[in-house]
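U., I forgot to send this yesterday:
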Amino acid sequence: MLKSAALWRYSIFNFLLIALLAHWFWQQNQPVDMIEPQLPANGKLNCVSYAPYYGKDESPFIASSVVGKMRIEKDLALLSERFDCVRTYSVNQGLDYVPEAAAKLGLKVLLGAWIGYTKLQNDAEFNLAVDLANRYPDTVKGLIIGNEVLLRKEQTEDVILAYLEEAQRRTEVPVTYADVWEFWLKHPRLEQAVDYITVHVLPYWEDDPQSVDNALQHAEAVMNKLSSTFTKPLFIGETGWPSVGKHRNASVPSQVNQARYLREFIQVAHDKGWNYNMIEAMDQPWKRVLEGTVGGYWGLYNTDLESKFDFKGPVTERHDGLQPLYWALAGLLVFLGLTSMSKERRIPAMVAMGSLGILVGAAAYVQVGYLEAACRDTVEWIALVGITLAGILAMLNLPSLLLSKEQNKLSATLLFVLVFAAMITSFLLIPKLSFIPRDFNLNPTIGHIIYMMDGRYRNFPLALYALPVLQYAIGFTLLGILHRSSFGRYRKINIIALITALFCLILEPLNLHALLWVGIVVLLAYASWPRKGARA
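Result:
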């Protein structure tokens, strides 16, 4: 039976964790004051990217995802309240109706023709886009032939140039091509075939990711460089910030950072006279498959078409209400019940397990939110839910350890699961594409496999590991039941996990999540490291 003094020490530790978690919830729910940009006289912004694939299982890669006219009319009516213009990326899957619907609302359209690998499909897109531009010349204010085609290496410069020159011959609508700023510098010859240069400036996705503090200075530097290189007008075809997702070095996705970047950008654009298009109107869940969690959260509206923030007044990161308290109360009741079932009635034990229950309940609330954002497919759901359940089961097993002075087989097994999973996770978090320059030519199939394996598109699963790791390493130490194993493979597993975790931190030294992940791996190693004279 554990001594009362150890249980009181353990309770104090848990209450410290509760205080830290409560402070985090409080801080995340506090309104943050920020700049209120000077808006045009009509209160509307320049333009926004519009893709209607925000419903369940909707994607431009699914041929059956055809958007109905009523959906487009409803969406554009909403966007017309805040914007003067929408940008589209294709005229396929029902999007050819956008110019007609926009004309009814007085919205302008930057009409996109999607150019990919297949010439037959490209020609069909191109011809329909040119036809729509000619049919709605008062609505279509720009025809964008291709979006980041050269970045994706799906066509050559000569092919894009030929499409642009043909568009110039067949329409009076201004013609342009859109790509990231580095690729405009790599392909300056395209300037001769466009009426203006459409450039993407996305500080989060830079090869050297920018913090929100430095994002606008970076944007200004990019625009200055382009201005000194090209003579034709510049148009910022995409700029924005994600509200959820993985940290990339100093670049941190959050709703507050998204609002701050866009507000500050609008003010700078007003002062500098920049024309711009924001990315994007609605969150796009389908992009999470390609870009991880962050890909689905660039929208100014969520998938329920609710505005994430306004351009005036303070902005709040989270809106939890009383939900954390409800979950914490549920955890408290469960753990007090389990403690009573173990026939342990001492007050120190009830306080210790009650405080643990509060932590488990509140942490589970955070974990559910993390899983909903991070899991992209069945495999990830199974893997990440498995890790979550292993941690929760380890905590639920703790009341049964109160009557003994050592861990049981279930606790030891769950610790091994967490250690092994941490090793695999550390390896999968390595941003592998950091070794492949953007202009390196890859076979499309091999490139896709590397792309999907890239750790840039996986979040650090701190929410899933933090509480069980703290309990195994520190809580169990305070209780005097730290795992003592002679299982030699723990040493190799922990060394691999530590090396790969440190490698992630070396690649992104300003990434706070990478640093915290190293801390978690170190604590796991401490909790499971083989000890001399220990039983297996």
